[in-house]
């Protein structure tokens, strides 16, 4: 205990024979308080980043799902347009045949 007080310095709050805190003890106390505050801030930043990372992961998964649905809808629209094109071609072909038959009767 004596060695610790010798290294630490005089702290009036801890020792009875001390009148004023020495520069060494003030420095050590400041370093200790700074380390505690720095550790607390680092922990807060780390936990906040972890929460944000989880939220971003969820958002990216939803975006990926939306992209898959979007691709599926585009393929479906393409298939419908292809079917409509074939139907229109059939109608136009039928119209030409009907027009050709009515023209040959006149």
Account of the protein in words:
It is rod-shaped, with a radius of gyration of 41 Å. The protein starts with a helix and ends with a helix. It is built from 2 helices and no strands. The model has no long low-confidence stretch (mean pLDDT 86). The chain has one domain. It has 106 residues and is mainly alpha-helical. The longest helix has 83 residues.
Low-confidence stretches: none
Level of helix content? over 70%
Percent strand equals under 5%
- What does the overall shape look like? rod-shaped
Terminal Cα span: 126 Å
The number of distinct structural domains comes to 1
What is the chain-wise order of helices and strands? Answer: HH
The mean pLDDT is 86
Produce a short descriptive summary.
This protein has helices spanning 2-8, 23-105. The chain has 2 helices and no strands.
Which features characterize this protein?
85% helix, 106 residues, mainly alpha, single chain, 2 helices
Task: Summarize the SSE layout with pairings.
Blueprint: H1 2-8, H2 23-105
